[in-house]
Write a structure and sequence with these properties.
By secondary structure, the chain is α/β, with parallel strands linked by helices. The chain has a single domain, classed as 3-Layer(aba) Sandwich (Aminopeptidase). The radius of gyration is 19 Å and the shape is globular. The strands form two sheets. It has a six-stranded mixed beta sheet, with helices on both faces. Strand 1 and strand 2 form a beta hairpin. The protein contains eleven helices and eight strands. Helix 4 crosses helix 11. The longest helix has 20 residues. Bound molecules: zinc ion. The site of zinc ion has 4 residues, from loops.
């Protein structure tokens, strides 16, 4: 299915972007809400009863991001083929439509070969477009900000062998990165970046099996780069496992080899903002959603906490739960990435 065929939300909002933006400047405390055809009126914004309260500030709010992490986990494990997956996907698409000028699902079917041989799964990448300050330009540079919204079907690293067929809740491995992307998108909708930002929530990142070789991983990212349509991202930033309450990020090697300047720029910004303890000096190599993007010619930096003695003790286990995550950790990554995107990359 082509991307344009599955676009369903937000096109009217994109057309009325300029009017909305001017109105948002005029209404003190008014939310910049890109959903629906009519410009927002003061006092009419009413988020769903279970949604985190709508923020109106241009800065990243770690508490709001943490609420988004918890809200995803409240659906249960977001394993493709389950009701929780479908419902959370619907909810995430609504959030993207709320924060972005355009939002749509990029649907695809995956027939499993090794994880669940012969079974087919309906998956969807969720895409939001934020136009740059001044509105869309034909030659706008584009940046993709991504995270995976699926969670793993089986806790194959659980210390208890009887739990290795259970699904993973994915508070850190999945929900943390999505929470960061959504809160950055919301803040960018209030104060626009100089480049178009594509917010990409991938499906099927964590579906695969590792032995004897990696297979059936990064399904959404692979689908995205094969079906770019009229999108043309020049660089990317991937957020994955950014929620641990002792967060420490290292320079990931695929990222560094693809775009050393962007890695160093992110680390310099972190130091400038006082997050030198979070953006540390270690290095490691991780296969993640950024690899298909890099292979497709889109240099992408993966911000991921991959410490063997910390995050990997509960990675792909039944212990990947919100109590291991913190608003402060999301705040650190959100502040840095938002600042870099606002300056333009
Ligand atoms: Zn994972």
């Amino acid at each position: 299915m082509s991307m344009s065929a599955s676009r369903s939300l937000g096109t009217t909002a994109a057309r009325s972007f300029t009017a909305l933006w001017l109105l948002a400047l005029l209404i003190a405390g008014g939310a910049c809400n890109g959903q629906g055809a009519a410009p927002a009126q003061p006092g009419t914004t009413s988020p769903g009863t279970n949604d985190p309260p709508t923020q109106t500030e241009a800065v990243f709010d770690g508490d709001a991001a943490f609420a988004l992490l918890e809200a995803q986990c409240d659906f249960g494990p977001r394993v493709p083929g389950t009701e929780a997956h479908r419902k959370c996907g619907d909810w995430l698409l609504e959030k993207l439509a709320e924060y972005c000028d355009e939002a749509y699902a990029q649907e695809f079917t995956h027939v499993s070969t090794r994880a669940f041989p012969g079974q087919s799964f309906e998956m969807r990448n969720l895409v939001g477009i934020i136009e740059p300050a001044g509105g869309a330009a034909d030659d706008a540079r584009e940046v993709v900000l991504l995270a995976h919204w699926d969670s793993r079907p089986f806790a194959d690293h659980d210390p208890d062998p009887t739990k290795r067929d259970e699904p993973v809740l994915g508070a850190n491995d999945g929900a943390s990165g999505v929470a960061g992307c959504l809160e950055i998108a919301r803040a960018l909708s209030v104060e626009r970046p100089p480049t178009r930002v594509i917010v990409l929530l991938t499906d099927g990142e964590d579906f695969g099996v590792s032995e004897p070789t990696l297979s059936e991983y990064f399904l959404g990212a692979k689908h995205f780069v094969r079906n770019l349509g009229d999108l043309d991202p020049k660089r990317g930033i991937l957020l994955d496992m950014i929620g641990d309450d002792t967060l420490e990020l290292g320079r990931e090697r695929y990222s560094y080899n693809a775009d050393p300047a962007l890695v160093e720029r992110i680390w310099a910004k972190a130091a400038e903002l006082g997050y030198g303890d979070v953006f540390g000096d270690t290095t490691y190599t991780v296969s993640d959603d950024h690899v298909p993007l890099i292979q497709a010619g889109i240099p992408t930096v993966d911000l991921i906490d991959w410490r063997p003695e910390v995050t990997r003790t509960y990675w792909h286990t039944t212990f990947d739960t919100p109590d291991r995550c913190s608003p402060d950790s999301l705040q650190a990554v959100g502040d840095v990435v938002l600042a870099v995107l606002r300056e333009g990359i």
